[in-house]
Every structure is written in C-alpha cells, then in structure tokens.
Specification:
This protein is mainly beta and 130 residues long. It has strands at 3-7, 10-13, 18-25, 35-41, 48-53, 59-61, 69-74, 79-84, 93-100, 119-120, 124-129. It starts with a strand and ends with a strand.
C-alpha cells in the first residue's frame, strides 16, 4: 500500500530553520523517476504548492519561498526533503508531501496542481513565531 509519511515539523522562532522529511513506502519501485512536491495549507487558505522536484533535478519554487527553501531527494532512501531557512510567521501551515508516478510537467501553468499528484502524506505542522 502506497504511503508517504512526513516528519520534522515543529515550532520555531522567526529566522530559524527546519528540515522536513517525507519517507515513501509501497511506491518505491521507480521512485527516482517520480515527480515529487511539497504543498502547504494555512488556516482558512487554499493548499498551495511550495516546491517540486523532477527526475532530472529540475525544480520549482513558489516566489514566497525562493532563496529560503530547498527541495531535495535521496533516491536510495526513498525520501524527499524540504530544508526551510529564514522562516517567517507567514510560513506557518500544515506541510504535505506529494508524489506522482510520472515526471513533472515541463512547466506548471501558474503553480503546481494538487490534482496532478496521486499520493499524499498526512501533513506535518510548522509554526513560526515572531
């Protein structure tokens, strides 16, 4: 059974750092070919795409996180990461990892589409205090 499990969330002061992890199981065959992503959802807001990573290493970052967040993957461990630096209170949200057993689109129309991804984690809370 396909499963994505996030970890690494928590509470941090503004300017701090966190690293989120997303371990995959049940869908690990061909994991290195998947389109992987991180989304987040703040209270009262839509879930938004934060970053995506394709099989060839190409990445997408939302403007709000560029130069602060880094998405990466360890194919040997079937694990996706999100390194978050210089955190701001507006980064407070539940963070979700997602996977699609195909490559990412050449270009997202405006932002990563939730509908594109087949598998989702349960989410991990990130809280940034000022």
């Amino acid at each position: 059974q396909a499963q994505l499990v996030e970890s690494g969330g928590g509470s941090v002061q503004a300017g701090g750092s966190l690293r989120l992890s997303c371990a995959a199981s049940g869908i690990t065959y061909g994991y290195n070919y998947y389109c992987l992503g991180w989304f987040r959802q703040a209270p009262g807001k839509e879930r938004e795409g934060v970053a995506t990573l394709d099989r060839d290493g190409s990445t997408y970052y939302a403007d709000s996180v560029k130069a602060r967040f880094t998405i990466s993957r360890d194919n040997a461990k079937n694990t996706l990461y999100l390194q978050m630096n210089s955190l701001k209170p507006e980064d407070t949200a539940v963070y979700y990892c997602a996977a699609r057993t195909l490559r990412c689109p050449m270009r997202w129309v405006s932002a990563p589409s939730r509908a594109y991804f087949e598998y989702w984690g349960q989410g991990t809370q990130v809280t940034v205090s000022s």
